[in-house]
Please model this.
Amino acid sequence: MTALNIALVGNPNCGKTALFNLLTGSRQKVANYAGATVERKEGWFTTPAGRTVRLLDLPGAYSLNATSPDEAVTRDVCAGTYRGEAAPDLLVCVADATNLRLHLRFVLEMRALGRPAVLALNMIDAAQRGGMEIDLPRLQAEIGMPVVPTVGIRRDGARSLLAQLDGAPPPVPVPLPAGTDLHAMVRQILSDCVTQSTPLSDRVEERLDRWVLHPVWGPVILIVLLFFMFQAVFAWAQPLMDGIDAGMGWLGQQVGQLLPDGVLRSLIVDGVIAGAGSVVTFLPQILILFAWILALEESGYLPRAAFLLDRLMSFAGLSGRSFIPLLSSFACAVPGVMATRTIQNPRDRLVTILIAPLMTCSARLPVYTLLIGAFIPHRNIAGLVNLQGLVLFGLYALGIVSAVVVARVLRWRNPDRQEATLLMELPAYRLPNPRDLALGLWERARIFLMRVGTTIVSLTVLLWGLSSFPAPPPGAPGPAIDWSLAGRIGHLMLPIFAPLGFNWQICVALIPGLAAREVAVGALATVYSLGSGTDTDQAAIQLGQMLPTHWSLATALSLLAWYVYAPQCVATLAVIRRETASWRVVALAAGYLFALAYVAAFLTYHIARMF
Amino acid sequence: MRLSDLPRGTDAVIDSVDDHGSTDPVAQRLRELGFVPGEAVRIVATAPLGGDPLAVRIGFTRFALRRTEAARVNVHTAGVQA
Model:
């Protein structure tokens, strides 16, 4: 017997994904729909009677009258017109039993498609706890398709659904008369089939929202949550990152001892292991950040944070949904760009992706620390603020202000024919389910390691090759990198960067710095022949003492300005490519960041020289 | 009265949703989300920094709407008990 093709359809927040996870466990495949950046989730399972089922988790939709790319995919797959997708043999319409007034309308739209369909009345336990009684046989008769109760978060919560799948296939539902008022029909069904014994105002949402959405307490709660989130990302991830870093260093040494000195060893140790290390070191930060974001999303808090921040974000022409991705980008733009999936509006998502690299990520800090420590005097201004701290703050602020300006310019260059809308559901509060969190995290980790990681490692190896070949002739003076292709490219770049006050050493260091921004510090140390690049702490200290004798203050400030903007992060560009499926967007991001960096560094250099 | 002018915490009933222009996707979506004549609505919260957007409860569901979106919805409060 061939596999049964089933599609799960329903409103956002109907608990569809929990049901999908319950049915398929870890037998899932996440990819994109052909020709779209919409996430496609497919899984497999076998029913108790032994039928193989291929289950597609369609994006949540409020209506077949699509207003977003997600909804368009759902509409076309359900209609069987999406190219490359088989028309589903059966639609499993999922509705939250506690929110039937909204969800049944979409179920009736599904019924009108003329495909065999089943209604899964999900979260039936919560409805019953809330004092709601549903007359299932009557509902089944009025909605015109078999109805099964399900509980996505309970182990045996899909039993009735599985029994339904093993039984006779449901008939194609009888079409509704043309011009039926779906809302009126839903109202009729609800008054016939549902009795509510407890009044509405007793619901949890009522009481929680009084605090969470409060004009004063709401922002206070948000700030406390964000404080802990960042505490977790920076403080708790650090020991893990240090551990991984040390582990990869140890691995490099062990492998290095096994291999004879030469090109192969350098390739494996300095290219592959170092490249993989730079990817894996990010992982704790990314996982902790995503654990928070997923928990906030699953609990229903994320849309409320977006509500509180909508006004603030509208200054940049964005909606509140862009806030969390941009905030995450202060840790690292990679999870920030990945987190833009929570933004439904494609244009807002694109603008957010494009400005995410302007948030000062943690990888820029080593460079800032080095240059500020070496060039900015440790002096108090008005007895209150330290000049070094002020400059650091200024660099962060410059990034944020530039992001607002860029976002506004992008909006102005591509005026939306529709007005900027919010129109967002504030779903019921829910305790995040551990299985759904774990599966969500696993999925993110896999995407990061497989898709982004492979790109980063291959580019790191390429940069290693550029920095290592050709090798200097025996006994040649100067650092080896100066003889390599990267060194030559650095010298060739000099005429372009000389107007910014950069010398050839900076140009050479910029090339390996492409792999990850903080590598530039080690590369500078290498160029200035300060011993091996492995003991970076020691090298950074020496470098800090030496740089003021080699560079002018104007050059240092110019390099700082360059670093606020420069798109020197292969990982970010790789994740932009992965999330937008477009090299054009990658080119746009890299191009505008480069242009901004160049102009900012040029102005900084020439203004600083006047003093 | 427009939904955007409704005071917070006051119960009201929807009269109609206006289209802005001939095809108004926002108005269409509002209707699909249940903003249809006869439904009870209430503004449960207004956002900080100027009271925009609004959190609106309709039936069992809450939505965040900007004031420009809420201005499409006409409501009346007469005869509704809190």
